[in-house]
Write a structure and sequence with these properties.
single chain, alpha+beta, FAD/NAD(P)-binding domain, D-Amino Acid Oxidase, Chain A, domain 2, 4 domains, seven-stranded mixed sheet, 24 strands
Length: about 550
């Protein structure tokens, strides 16, 4: 039986994104103001803080200005400042500049940032305040008290297991990190949040979460590029290569040193099982307008991530005995604005205020921690979240009714025609494929990158450019529970969509030699970008994503 070392803290933050970093910093600020000494720890599964943060983004500075009023003087890492907003509707061959940019997307004056660099900057501030930061440690298991209701901390993952799951000579068992309050801020589709939802009713009465997957690149451009002297450097698109019934869109942001962040998002409620997310991304990049932007460029980094977009009505109950939930792992995101960093940070800061009150009162049960929900509700973050409360659900509608709902919501600041529009689980939306099993778009119709164009790269090159590394002789962190489901149900019905929705080429069909079908699915887990699309979109819930050995996965640096 493995013995796990125990370390105790006052507060444990799980996840090193902007929500928890801001929360930990705010907690230490409050402790200093009140003359309290706290032992605070933050763990992150990435090799370093920021290594799993993939979003090059436009950032509303509201939260960082509250946390550090002099953030610019403290050399907060700003890439560019938004000069103006461009919003375009794309057809296959044309781009039409929209006369109206929705108010939620008015970004002039906002900083364009590299989230990886922002997290590293926040991490340095946190360490300077005395926060214990442990990178390369994943939260593998939620620890509960004997009552089965109270969160007491997390157990980190074992290191040094072989492919057979048995300890190797360098085996290191996980550590039990105990705390009076545990803050889960793992990002979208957090493993611990998912485990906790199986044990406690944190999602009772809530709409199912819905998600988008984004593929994003940093591209180095020549000195005189599209945005040189342009009136706008914040560009969003809708339309091509998606049809109007499939939500999604593209973005291009100017960054420092003649670089851009370019990406494309697809809502995972799509219906077509032949839709290939990476192929869609390449088609976007093939559009004449985007080709004009990236001409002469070179992809220097690529990655992928899911975003929880359901918003207000899909947020879980934000507190249980001994724990709080922050950031996008709690569906805290503004889908109309296509922004979430400022909301994530504010959620962490409000969680810190709640925790400080609870610790000083000597009671960290749910009753004491429920003040967090009230703080969210009465803050500017709550107002922004409520304005987008039905937006993703309206986008999922088909035909003219979609636009009627969206217009009504825009005019009524969120309420629309029906307040609390229903949502469905993204895993349930695929329609059975037409034609031959296992089919996708014919090869001649797929958007393959030209070998001599460094601005267009294939999937495996993209994985390489993400810096993704996993030790090959460990158990796979991606679990296919029953290969028979793949062979007997998924292949004939949907053609194994995992081979198309995964942006990292993790899933590969193993065909029968006689061409009669497949023997199963091969899992190339070392390619995994940790986007977790598979855990969300698999139509039979036959795939579970878990954390690999701590410190592995992508290593984002540019954005």
């Amino acid at each position: 039986m493995t013995t796990h070392e125990t370390i105790e803290f006052d507060v444990l933050f799980v996840g090193g994104g902007p929500a928890n970093l801001a929360g930990a910093i705010r907690l230490m600020q409050l402790a200093a103001e009140k003359g309290q000494e706290l032992e605070v720890a933050l763990i992150d599964k990435g090799a370093a803080i920021g290594s799993h943060a993939i979003s090059g983004a436009v950032m509303n500075p509201a939260a960082i200005a509250e946390l550090f009023p002099d953030y610019l003087e403290q050399e907060f890492p700003v890439e560019q400042t938004v000069r103006g907003d461009g919003f375009f509707f794309l057809t296959k061959a044309r781009s039409i500049k929209m006369p109206l940019v929705p108010r939620q997307m008015h970004n002039t004056g906002f900083p364009i940032v590299s989230l990886s660099r922002v997290c590293r900057w926040l991490g340095e501030k946190a360490e300077a305040l005395g926060i214990n930061i442990f990178s390369g440690f994943d939260g593998k298991e939620i620890l509960l008290a004997d009552d089965g209701l109270t969160v007491t901390g997390v157990r980190t993952g074992d290191k040094g297991l072989g492919k057979d799951g048995k300890p190797k000579p360098n085996f290191e068992p996980g550590i039990d990190l105990l705390a009076k309050v545990t803050v889960l801020g793992e990002g979208a589709r957090g493993s611990l949040m998912k485990m906790l939802a199986d044990k406690l009713p944190i999602r009772s009465g809530r709409l199912p979460e819905v998600f988008e997957t984004g593929i994003k690149e940093v591209i180095q451009l020549p000195e005189n590029h599209f945005f040189s002297g342009s009136a706008f450097n914040d560009l969003h698109t809708m339309g091509f290569p998606l049809n109007l019934d499939t939500p999604g869109g593209g973005f291009v942001y100017e960054m420092a040193k003649n670089r851009i962040a370019l990406g494309f998002l697809v809502a995972l409620g799509y219906e077509d099982p032949s839709l290939d997310l990476y192929d869609t991304f390449l088609r976007f990049k093939r559009h004449p307008m985007i080709q004009n932007i990236i001409r002469g460029g070179k992809v220097v980094e690529q990655g992928a991530r899911t975003v929880s977009t359901g918003g207000w009505f899909s947020m879980p109950h934000l507190a249980v005995d001994g724990a709080l939930f922050t950031g996008n792992g709690a569906a805290i995101h503004s889908t109309p604005a296509i922004k979430g960093i400022h909301l994530a940070m504010k959620s962490g800061m409000l969680a810190a205020e709640t925790i400080m009150d609870a610790l000083m009162a000597g009671n960290t049960n749910r009753h004491s921690l429920d003040g967090y929900s009230q703080r969210i509700d009465s803050s500017w973050a709550g107002a922004e979240l409520r304005e987008g409360r039905n937006f993703a659900q309206a986008l999922a509608k088909k035909g003219p009714i979609k636009w009627i709902h969206l217009a009504a919501q825009y005019l009524s600041k969120g309420k629309g025609l029906i307040d609390r529009l229903p949502a469905v689980d993204d895993a349930t939306t695929l329609t059975p494929q037409k034609g031959e099993a296992g089919g996708t778009k014919p090869a001649e119709e797929q958007a393959k990158p030209a070998k001599d164009d460094p601005a267009m790269v294939d999937k495996l090159t993209g994985v390489y450019l993400s810096g993704t590394l996993h030790r090959e002789d460990q158990p796979s962190h991606i679990l296919i529970h029953d290969q028979r489901v793949c062979v007997e149900k998924c292949y004939p019905t949907y053609g194994c969509p995992c081979t198309r929705f995964c942006p990292g080429d993790v899933y590969e069909m193993d065909p029968c030699k006689d061409g009669s079908g497949i023997k199963g699915i091969k899992v190339n887990f070392t390619n995994c970008l940790h986007c977790k699309t598979c855990d969300i979109k698999d139509p039979f819930h036959n795939v579970t994503w878990t954390c690999p050995e701590g410190g592995e996965g992508p290593n984002y640096k540019q954005a």
